[in-house]
Amino acid sequence: MNPINHYFQIILSFSKKHWKLLLVSFLGLMGIGILLLTLFLGGYFGPTYSDEEILSFQNDEASEVFSEDRVLLGKYFSENRTNAQFEDLPDYLIQALVATEDARYFEHEGVDSRSVLRVMVKSVLLGDKSSGGGSTITQQLAKNMFGRKDYGIFSMLINKSGEIKTAQQLERLYSKNEILALYLNTIPFGESIYGIETASQRFFNKKVNDLRIEEAAVLIGMLKANTYYNPRKYPEHALERRNVVLHQMMKYDYITKSQYDSLSKLPISLDYANKENNGIADYFLSRVKIKAQSIITEYNQKNGTHYDIEADGLKIHTTLNSQLQKYAIEAVERQLKEKQEALLQQYKMQKYKTELQQIIDRKFNQLNVENTVSKQEYFTWEGNKVDDLSVKDSIRNELLLLHAGYLAIHPQNGEVKAYVGGIDFQSHPYDQVMAKRQLASTFKPILYAVGLENGYYPCKYIKNELDENEEGWKPSNYSKTSGGMYSMAAALAKSLNIPTVRIYNKVPFDDLKELWDNLQFEEEIKDFPSTALGTTDASIWELSEAYASFANGGFYVQPSMITEIIAADGTVLYTAPKVPYSHRVMQESTAIQMTAMLQKVMNEGTGVGMRSRYGVTLPLAGKTGTSQNYGDAWFATYNPNLVIISRVGASTNQIHFSSGRNGSGSALALPITAYSLQKVQKDRQLKHWFIPFDATPSYLSNAMNCEDYKEGTDVEMFFKNIFKPKSKEEKQKRKELRKEKRQKRKEKRGI
User: Fold this and answer.
1) For 51-263, CATH number?
2) How far apart are CA 638 and CA 621, in angstroms?
3) Contact 603, 573 (CB under 8 A)
4) Domain Glycosyl transferase family, which positions (predicted)?
5) Which of 586, 434, 588 has the alpha carbon at shortest distance from 516?
6) For the chain, what is the radius of gyration of the CA atoms?
7) Residue ranges of domains in the chain
8) Secondary structure, 3-state, 243-271
9) How crowded is the C-beta side of 582, counted as CA atoms within 13 Å?
10) What is the pLDDT of residue 373?
11) What is residue 474's DSSP assignment?
12) CATH topology of domain 403-700
């Protein structure tokens, strides 16, 4: 029998009862389907939120940190997002979004029925994930706002249902424009960034309202798959997707065909600006965050608020000058590139190569690991590199790296103007500005200030030789010479050690300790003669406070970094006090005389290279410093409006240059400051900081009016002249000195 006829006979054999049962079953299934669809569309399957929850929703928004000249330095965030207002969004950005994501956006009320049916049939019933989500912009916003939960095999059905109901609430509670702004502020763009404003700044380094049409199309194109269409990682994918967006804009008459033809031929031109990695002030931002968090915590406790530095979009305004910061970074890089190569060459010599290997072996043995080889990334000035390195290779690389710190503060109010904490924050986050190392000769002005407070004066002559009966530790000068007597000012200018120790032995140690403590140094100073030469450890940060007191007339000023913190709604959470916390630490006359002596250092002494070699003519006082065996090189300089401290050294003072040609303060640290000031004195915006020093008051006008050197005391010279015959060379030298003195006297009289 024909099969068709067979089934037809079966159907005809159904009784009336069977037909009734079949009809009831069909109607029942249809009713259940309608009920399920109604419940689905009504949002009864998914989570629900009250109107209050929706209205009070806020995105986590990154807090932004700005320099004093309004440059964005970086952000603090749990989600990297900067919210934009609707009025900041260009029309063509909105048009690109609607044309690509939800063409009937302005017609529906949160749910597009045609898309819902497609989702029900293809995505839910048939499980075809490639058919698309079919969600409207409003539904996508609902998903972005509250996320999705896991309900097993029913996850899509339940989550979609909840999003439909939430979308309908959103349409009732917000205007279409407000929904668009909310949506564009919630969408993720990959690379841990959220929102159109942040994406615009990341990929095009501009605010969203400055985007061009083709740039807006790139960002809207990323919404489909933010990694696959990332224009930095996959430019060919992004270009293809951008042109799809432009085509959609043409399809819905937002742009003309000629515009499409022109724009679609343009290449993607990025100006990638990652403000969270390799910024110009990473070390500074790390310090600012600690301080800002303390300020916000105190504000919350006082006012019963709950501001969050990583979620509430605070605006943190700082004291840093972005231009000086750039000059400082460039100076550090320029100097360290050159000196790094010199250090590497030194340690290729057999003598130093052997010493280095011994240090590596000691470090390796302390780790108690095997010398395995693995791929490792390491820092170089040509960019980070990846290579197969053993543990000992890694130790060697780290040991031979030169590090540097650079800090500039305003001595009158303590504002930090430049802060370079190291060579690379990502690979070497240890902050060199806060690291403590031996101060070397940059300590001497602190001791000399105590001398001035105890009756010394710049023209007081100090013997440049040790007493014959002196026992124990004996200092020597850098030049290895001794003899004669130097004025206090000349001894400091030439950074002579023997006169410095003689001053140390004469002034009360308690007075030195009192000044040291008043200047807020943390390390305890010990009463040893070697202390005079700067064997105590201190940081760049601390030394800047000390030199600021010379520059401002004798006051301690605490460095500050934050001028204002403002909440997203405009509430001012913090304003820096106009007069910073300070107290007098030395007499004004002491500070004035120290400044005069330290100007002599720059013009005639160890800092003269700033003028002669680097051509920096700005008014400056300062001091170089070289620690034992050239382990660290320091340079401290200042003006009435700026104090700059720089220091260079390896991570351990066991690694160092072998001579002062490369390792002294004047050869290693001074050039960093010099390179930055070369640019400052050509910069009209910054040069005005470097005003001349105030004229010396009349009561101190002759404080520096003396010869640098004489052979002995007047009594000594008297007896020396009587009892010791002079050689021809000595007679000639004395004749020349007398001639020089006569000439100077004539010059003073105007002859």
Assistant:
1) 1.10.3810.10
2) 5
3) no
4) 75-249
5) 586
6) 37
7) 3-41, 51-263, 403-700, 713-749
8) HHHHHHHHHCCCCCHHHHHHHCCCCCCCC
9) 24
10) 92
11) -
12) Beta-lactamase (3.40.710)
DSSP 128-180: -GGG-----HHHHHHHHHH-----GGGHHHHHHHHHHHHHHHHHHHS-HHHHH
Give the SS3 label for residue 66.
Answer: strand
Helix and strand element counts for the chain (H, E): 28, 21
pTM: 0.76
Average pLDDT across each block of 10 residues of the chain; the chain has 751 residues. List them in order: 59 58 61 51 58 72 93 86 88 95 86 65 53 73 72 60 77 88 89 90 93 96 93 92 96 95 95 70 96 96 94 95 98 97 95 94 92 90 88 95 98 97 93 97 98 96 80 81 93 96 96 97 96 97 98 96 96 89 91 97 96 97 96 97 98 95 97 98 94 92 91 52 48 59 56 44
Structure tokens at 68: 């004093």
What is the spatial distance between Cα 325 and Cα 323, in angstroms, rounded to a whole number? 5
pLDDT value, residue 744: 55
Residue 203's closest CA among 275, 310, 95, 96? Answer: 275
Nearest to 254 by CA among 9, 90, 67, 449: 90
Give the integer Cα–Cα distance in Å for 328 and 416. 13
Domains 51-263 and 403-700 are alike in CATH topology: no
Tell me the sheet residues that pair with 560: 415
E strands, 611-730, are 621-626, 633-639, 642-650, 709-710
